[in-house]
Amino acid sequence: MPRKRSHRSLQARYGVAQEAARIMREQGIKDFLLAKRKAAERLGISDRTALPGNDEIAAALTEQQRLFGGAAYPARLRALRETAGQAMDMLREFEPRLVGSVLSGAITEHSDVNLHVFSDTAEAVAIRLMDQGIPYEMNERRIRYPTERIEQLPSFRFIAGDVSVEATVFPVQGLRQAPSCPVDGRPMQRARLPDLKALLVES
């Protein structure tokens, strides 16, 4: 009997992951927890042990994009990565790093480009954007570290072509420790511009 329940739980977990990925892909939801709750409610699943991890949803999202995205998926991913490269080149004095879905490949048609840049003053980044004639919106991002430390950091959102780019400003010493990835809780993967160029060559 326990084995049967375990199999049922695994099936439910897989179903919620697939449904949450579909919701994120079709509705543009970026919050894994919200998508997970919507999926569980839609499927009538209340058992918390049957809920997938964010990493399982991200994997399902990438799988669905490859299955259903056709030629549009790799073209969209390449366009986003090319835009990221242009933004990183423009912000090169701030040691930019690409993070998030554009790096991992778990994109939707609603995905934007997320960068980490490093400067001890947010004003320096603002001046760089103004010098380039780029309008921006300044916000704050809540950043969590593997040590459970939480910081509120300034971020700049601007448009490059038809793509939204968000650059979160870390202090220069922030290069030494990556924040926690919202998908799996591990230190976030960060790619330098040469790393991104290598990805573009491979694709």
Residue share in β-strands: 15-25%
Widest sheet, order of strands: 1-2-5-4-3
Number of separate structural domains? 2
What value does the Rg take, in angstroms?
19 Å
Would you count the extended β strands for me?
5
The CATH homologous superfamily of the largest domain is named Beta Polymerase, domain 2
**Low-confidence runs (pLDDT<50, min 5 residues)?**
1-5
- Please give the largest β-sheet: 5 strands, mixed
Query: Can you count the helices?
Result: 7
In CATH terms, what is the architecture of the largest domain?
2-Layer Sandwich
Give the overall average pLDDT.
Answer: 89
CATH topology description of the largest domain: Beta Polymerase, domain 2
The helix/strand class is alpha+beta
Q: What best-fitting shape do the alpha-carbon axes yield?
A: globular
Question: What would the keywords be for this entry?
Answer:
single chain; 203 residues; alpha+beta; Beta Polymerase, domain 2; 5-stranded mixed beta sheet; 7 helices; disordered N terminus
SSE arrangement:
Blueprint: H1 2-27, H2 32-43, H3 54-68, H4 72-90, E1 97-99, H5 101-104, E2 113-118, H6 122-131, E3 137-144, E4 150-160, E5 163-170, H7 193-202
Parallel strand pairs: 2-5
Antiparallel strand pairs: 1-2, 3-4, 4-5
What can you tell me about this protein's structure?
The N and C termini lie far apart (47 Å). This protein has two domains: 2-68; 72-202, 2-Layer Sandwich (Beta Polymerase, domain 2), CATH 3.30.460.10. A five-stranded mixed β-sheet has the order 1-2-5-4-3. The protein is α+β, with helices and mostly antiparallel strands and 203 residues long. The protein is 47% helix and 18% strand. α1 (2-27) crosses α2. Residues 1-5 have low confidence and may be disordered. 31% of the residues are buried. The longest helix has 26 residues, at 2-27. The protein contains seven helices and five strands; from the N terminus they run ααααβαβαβββα.
